[in-house]
Write a structure and sequence with these properties.
CATH class of the largest domain: Alpha Beta
Oligomer: single chain
Number of domains: 2
CATH topology of the largest domain: VC0802-like
Structural class: alpha/beta
Shape: elongated
Strand content: 15-25%
Order of helices and strands: EHEEHEHEHEEHHEHEHEEHEHEE
Amino acid sequence: MAASTTTAIAQPALLGYCRAGFEPELAAEFTERAGALGFAGYARTERGTGFVRFICDDAEALSHALPFRDLIFARQKMIAFAELPSLGATGQAKPDRVGAMVTAMAATLGTPTLHFGDVRVEHADSDEGKPLAALARALGNALRPALREAGWLTHIDSPDRPRLHVLLETGDHAHLGIVDPQDGSEWPMGIPRLRMHPQAPSRSALKLEEAFLTLLDAKEREAWFKENMHAADLGAAPGGWSWVLMRNGVRVISVDNGPLAQHLLDSGRVEHLRADGFVWHPKRTLDWMVCDMVEQPRRVAERMATWLREGWCRRTVFNLKLPMKKRWDETRQCLALFERDVGQPVEWRAKQLYHDREEITVFARLRG
């Protein structure tokens, strides 16, 4: 392996992946949340790149203070410790990218006292990033044995240890970072790979499946989905979200004036109620209420708060459709309005999911 003369820039940063086009929202979220926690810094990004860096002298402390689960617009969170803007630029016909990365790790981290449990070489989920997929795979295959030889990587994958992540910005520009497996996404690029089931009435089913995987942990999913629990799906047609609930053993009241997929009705576990989802409410407390209605986000937030405040449901998952501009401001205001209108201690978690578009998905329940 030829020696590399690539210079690594050691600039601590909190780096987050996001949906392409939502870099300003993640940058605003990083900036506001860091400021509220007493951390000085600034966001650096370009629209359409699919990631944001928040430059901060104590990025590690900020990462501990700002859990991944609390971030709305981040698909992944890492502590970036080195940037290689001219990766493997040695003047040779074939640049030694692997050697450059191993050298950069020694230059910024010192001797390999930290043993990573795994390494992932990734690209952003963007128009510029997707063509790098083949290079990322090749570099990952080559980097793994080189890291083991240098003492940076455990001899067998260890999922409990920190992961080394390499984000390729271009073929010759990379960012190196550390992901805590307990404080980040488990999925490559932060994207769960879900397949559309042939029986699902619509692709919106993937959105609720991802919400349950992302916003709930394994113990919560086991405890909160029991056979013959009851739920309402507001604005259900054609029934994608009702189908997901039914697959989890839940009996569903699907509220919509539009038609439902016939096989849902034939299941005997879904009741179609032709009514306005913003008006109807149950006569007794349901285990779940879900809502994916296309409506002004503040109106949705107010109605969802009413359901919890009045005791019509124990838990809810709903979507807030965001405007084209000032989406972070609208997100903050809608969630503050929701929390205020519930009028009781409420726990909520929100994410912009991979299967979301111009929207975020919220899980909420009353505390206690």
